[in-house]
Write a structure and sequence with these properties.
Structural class of chain A: mainly beta
Largest sheet of chain A: 6 strands, mixed
Oligomer: heterodimer
Structural class of chain B: mainly beta
Mean pLDDT of chain A: 93
Number of strands of chain B: 11
Chain lengths: ~110, ~110
Protein backbone atom coordinates (compact mmCIF):
# COMPACT_ATOMS: atom_id res chain seq x y z
CA UNK A 1 0.00 0.00 0.00
CA UNK A 2 0.88 3.66 -0.11
CA UNK A 3 3.37 4.92 2.46
CA UNK A 4 2.93 8.25 4.26
CA UNK A 5 5.77 9.80 6.22
CA UNK A 6 5.51 12.96 8.29
CA UNK A 7 8.26 15.11 9.70
CA UNK A 8 9.25 16.21 12.20
CA UNK A 9 7.64 13.80 14.68
CA UNK A 10 7.72 16.42 17.43
CA UNK A 11 7.94 20.20 17.37
CA UNK A 12 8.06 22.57 20.34
CA UNK A 13 7.74 26.29 19.63
CA UNK A 14 7.19 29.56 21.42
CA UNK A 15 3.90 31.31 20.89
CA UNK A 16 4.14 33.59 17.85
CA UNK A 17 6.61 31.41 15.95
CA UNK A 18 6.03 30.00 12.48
CA UNK A 19 6.25 26.31 11.59
CA UNK A 20 6.35 24.03 8.57
CA UNK A 21 5.16 20.43 8.71
CA UNK A 22 5.98 18.02 5.91
CA UNK A 23 4.20 14.98 4.47
CA UNK A 24 5.85 12.67 1.94
CA UNK A 25 3.89 9.98 0.14
CA UNK A 26 5.03 7.10 -1.99
CA UNK A 27 2.56 7.09 -4.91
CA UNK A 28 0.19 9.32 -6.86
CA UNK A 29 -2.87 10.45 -4.91
CA UNK A 30 -6.49 11.41 -5.53
CA UNK A 31 -7.00 12.85 -2.08
CA UNK A 32 -4.75 14.44 0.50
CA UNK A 33 -6.08 15.90 3.70
CA UNK A 34 -4.50 17.59 6.70
CA UNK A 35 -6.15 17.02 10.07
CA UNK A 36 -5.57 18.55 13.48
CA UNK A 37 -6.22 16.32 16.46
CA UNK A 38 -6.78 18.59 19.42
CA UNK A 39 -5.90 17.66 23.03
CA UNK A 40 -9.46 16.33 23.49
CA UNK A 41 -8.93 13.84 20.68
CA UNK A 42 -11.17 15.42 18.07
CA UNK A 43 -10.02 15.21 14.45
CA UNK A 44 -10.58 18.50 12.68
CA UNK A 45 -10.33 18.63 8.90
CA UNK A 46 -7.99 21.49 7.95
CA UNK A 47 -7.51 21.11 4.22
CA UNK A 48 -8.47 18.91 1.33
CA UNK A 49 -5.52 19.50 -0.96
CA UNK A 50 -4.48 16.81 -3.49
CA UNK A 51 -2.60 19.52 -5.40
CA UNK A 52 -1.99 23.26 -5.34
CA UNK A 53 -2.10 25.76 -2.51
CA UNK A 54 -4.83 26.76 -0.08
CA UNK A 55 -4.98 29.22 2.78
CA UNK A 56 -7.29 29.52 5.74
CA UNK A 57 -6.38 32.30 8.14
CA UNK A 58 -2.99 31.58 9.73
CA UNK A 59 -2.82 28.15 8.12
CA UNK A 60 -1.87 27.32 4.58
CA UNK A 61 -0.98 24.17 2.71
CA UNK A 62 0.80 23.30 -0.49
CA UNK A 63 0.87 19.96 -2.26
CA UNK A 64 3.34 19.26 -5.06
CA UNK A 65 1.78 16.10 -6.44
CA UNK A 66 4.49 15.47 -9.04
CA UNK A 67 7.13 15.41 -6.29
CA UNK A 68 4.87 13.55 -3.82
CA UNK A 69 4.94 15.89 -0.86
CA UNK A 70 2.74 18.33 0.97
CA UNK A 71 3.57 21.12 3.41
CA UNK A 72 1.43 22.63 6.13
CA UNK A 73 2.39 26.12 7.28
CA UNK A 74 1.28 27.60 10.59
CA UNK A 75 2.08 31.26 11.12
CA UNK A 76 2.01 33.23 14.37
CA UNK A 77 1.40 30.08 16.42
CA UNK A 78 -1.06 30.16 19.31
CA UNK A 79 -1.38 27.74 22.22
CA UNK A 80 -4.63 26.49 20.70
CA UNK A 81 -2.59 25.19 17.75
CA UNK A 82 -1.12 22.52 20.00
CA UNK A 83 -2.00 18.93 19.19
CA UNK A 84 -1.13 16.34 16.58
CA UNK A 85 -1.26 17.11 12.88
CA UNK A 86 -1.98 14.22 10.55
CA UNK A 87 -1.58 13.94 6.82
CA UNK A 88 -3.79 11.34 5.15
CA UNK A 89 -3.88 10.28 1.51
CA UNK A 90 -5.90 8.17 -0.88
CA UNK A 91 -3.82 6.72 -3.66
CA UNK A 92 -5.00 6.83 -7.25
CA UNK A 93 -3.61 3.44 -8.19
CA UNK A 94 -5.36 0.12 -7.62
CA UNK A 95 -4.86 -1.15 -4.07
CA UNK A 96 -4.00 2.28 -2.67
CA UNK A 97 -7.49 3.77 -2.69
CA UNK A 98 -8.20 3.70 1.05
CA UNK A 99 -7.40 6.70 3.23
CA UNK A 100 -4.00 6.06 4.79
CA UNK A 101 -2.63 8.15 7.65
CA UNK A 102 0.86 9.18 8.54
CA UNK A 103 2.01 8.88 12.15
CA UNK A 104 1.61 12.59 12.76
CA UNK A 105 3.57 15.61 13.98
CA UNK A 106 3.02 16.52 17.62
CA UNK A 107 3.11 20.31 17.94
CA UNK A 108 3.45 21.95 21.34
CA UNK A 109 3.14 25.73 21.57
CA UNK A 110 4.62 27.24 24.74
CA UNK A 111 3.14 30.53 26.00
CA UNK B 1 -26.29 19.49 10.67
CA UNK B 2 -24.83 16.92 13.09
CA UNK B 3 -22.19 15.43 10.74
CA UNK B 4 -20.88 12.10 12.05
CA UNK B 5 -22.21 10.96 15.42
CA UNK B 6 -20.57 8.19 17.44
CA UNK B 7 -21.91 6.52 20.55
CA UNK B 8 -20.90 5.78 23.21
CA UNK B 9 -17.98 8.17 23.91
CA UNK B 10 -16.47 5.88 26.55
CA UNK B 11 -16.86 2.17 27.27
CA UNK B 12 -15.20 -0.38 29.54
CA UNK B 13 -15.63 -4.05 28.67
CA UNK B 14 -14.50 -7.26 30.25
CA UNK B 15 -12.56 -9.74 28.16
CA UNK B 16 -14.96 -11.88 26.16
CA UNK B 17 -17.87 -9.46 26.21
CA UNK B 18 -19.42 -8.23 22.99
CA UNK B 19 -20.64 -4.77 22.09
CA UNK B 20 -21.60 -2.54 19.18
CA UNK B 21 -20.16 0.89 18.52
CA UNK B 22 -22.69 3.07 16.74
CA UNK B 23 -21.97 5.50 13.92
CA UNK B 24 -24.48 7.65 12.07
CA UNK B 25 -24.06 10.41 9.48
CA UNK B 26 -26.61 12.84 8.10
CA UNK B 27 -24.70 14.07 5.04
CA UNK B 28 -25.94 11.38 2.65
CA UNK B 29 -22.37 10.17 2.17
CA UNK B 30 -21.87 6.93 0.31
CA UNK B 31 -18.56 6.03 1.92
CA UNK B 32 -18.19 5.18 5.62
CA UNK B 33 -15.29 3.66 7.49
CA UNK B 34 -14.00 2.69 10.91
CA UNK B 35 -10.49 3.41 12.20
CA UNK B 36 -8.68 2.64 15.39
CA UNK B 37 -5.99 4.83 16.91
CA UNK B 38 -3.39 3.41 19.26
CA UNK B 39 -0.86 5.50 21.23
CA UNK B 40 1.90 6.96 19.08
CA UNK B 41 0.34 5.72 15.88
CA UNK B 42 -1.78 7.14 13.15
CA UNK B 43 -5.23 5.82 12.41
CA UNK B 44 -5.55 2.35 10.93
CA UNK B 45 -8.50 1.24 8.82
CA UNK B 46 -10.64 -1.59 10.23
CA UNK B 47 -13.58 -1.89 7.80
CA UNK B 48 -15.22 0.33 5.22
CA UNK B 49 -18.35 0.53 3.10
CA UNK B 50 -18.97 2.20 -0.26
CA UNK B 51 -22.74 2.03 0.06
CA UNK B 52 -25.66 0.23 1.68
CA UNK B 53 -25.19 -3.53 1.55
CA UNK B 54 -21.48 -3.31 0.62
CA UNK B 55 -18.65 -3.71 3.12
CA UNK B 56 -15.01 -4.69 2.92
CA UNK B 57 -12.01 -5.22 5.15
CA UNK B 58 -9.33 -2.71 5.87
CA UNK B 59 -5.87 -3.10 7.35
CA UNK B 60 -6.83 -4.53 10.78
CA UNK B 61 -10.24 -6.30 10.47
CA UNK B 62 -9.74 -9.29 12.79
CA UNK B 63 -12.14 -9.38 15.74
CA UNK B 64 -14.57 -6.88 14.22
CA UNK B 65 -17.73 -7.17 12.14
CA UNK B 66 -19.67 -4.51 10.28
CA UNK B 67 -22.88 -4.21 8.30
CA UNK B 68 -24.45 -1.38 6.29
CA UNK B 69 -28.20 -1.74 6.03
CA UNK B 70 -28.83 1.99 5.47
CA UNK B 71 -26.83 4.89 4.03
CA UNK B 72 -26.86 6.66 7.41
CA UNK B 73 -25.65 3.94 9.80
CA UNK B 74 -22.46 1.87 9.99
CA UNK B 75 -22.18 -0.02 13.30
CA UNK B 76 -18.97 -1.79 14.37
CA UNK B 77 -19.34 -5.00 16.37
CA UNK B 78 -16.77 -6.51 18.68
CA UNK B 79 -17.66 -10.17 18.93
CA UNK B 80 -15.47 -11.20 21.88
CA UNK B 81 -13.49 -8.29 23.28
CA UNK B 82 -9.77 -8.72 23.95
CA UNK B 83 -7.32 -6.38 25.74
CA UNK B 84 -5.60 -5.82 22.38
CA UNK B 85 -8.76 -4.04 21.24
CA UNK B 86 -8.27 -1.30 23.82
CA UNK B 87 -8.08 1.76 21.60
CA UNK B 88 -9.84 4.87 20.42
CA UNK B 89 -12.23 4.19 17.57
CA UNK B 90 -13.17 6.73 14.94
CA UNK B 91 -15.92 6.56 12.36
CA UNK B 92 -15.64 8.62 9.18
CA UNK B 93 -17.74 9.35 6.15
CA UNK B 94 -17.19 10.99 2.78
CA UNK B 95 -18.85 11.53 -0.54
CA UNK B 96 -17.27 9.65 -3.39
CA UNK B 97 -15.80 12.37 -5.56
CA UNK B 98 -17.55 15.65 -6.22
CA UNK B 99 -16.73 19.24 -5.23
CA UNK B 100 -17.16 18.68 -1.47
CA UNK B 101 -14.96 15.62 -1.34
CA UNK B 102 -13.14 14.94 1.90
CA UNK B 103 -13.52 12.91 5.06
CA UNK B 104 -15.47 13.95 8.14
CA UNK B 105 -14.70 12.16 11.40
CA UNK B 106 -16.82 11.51 14.46
CA UNK B 107 -15.59 12.49 17.92
CA UNK B 108 -14.40 8.98 18.76
CA UNK B 109 -15.16 6.18 21.20
CA UNK B 110 -12.57 5.38 23.85
CA UNK B 111 -12.76 1.65 24.57
CA UNK B 112 -10.95 -0.13 27.39
CA UNK B 113 -10.99 -3.93 27.63
CA UNK B 114 -9.97 -5.32 31.02
Amino acid sequence: GIQVEQSPPDLILQEGANSTLRCNFSDSVNNLQWFHQNPWGQLINLFYIPSGTKQNGRLSATTVATERYSLLYISSSQTTDSGVYFCAVEGSNFGNEKLTFGTGTRLTIIP
Amino acid sequence: NAGVTQTPKFQVLKTGQSMTLQCAQDMNHEYMSWYRQDPGMGLRLIHYSVGAGITDQGEVPNGYNVSRSTTEDFPLRLLSAAPSQTSVYFCASSSIGGPNYGYTFGSGTRLTVV
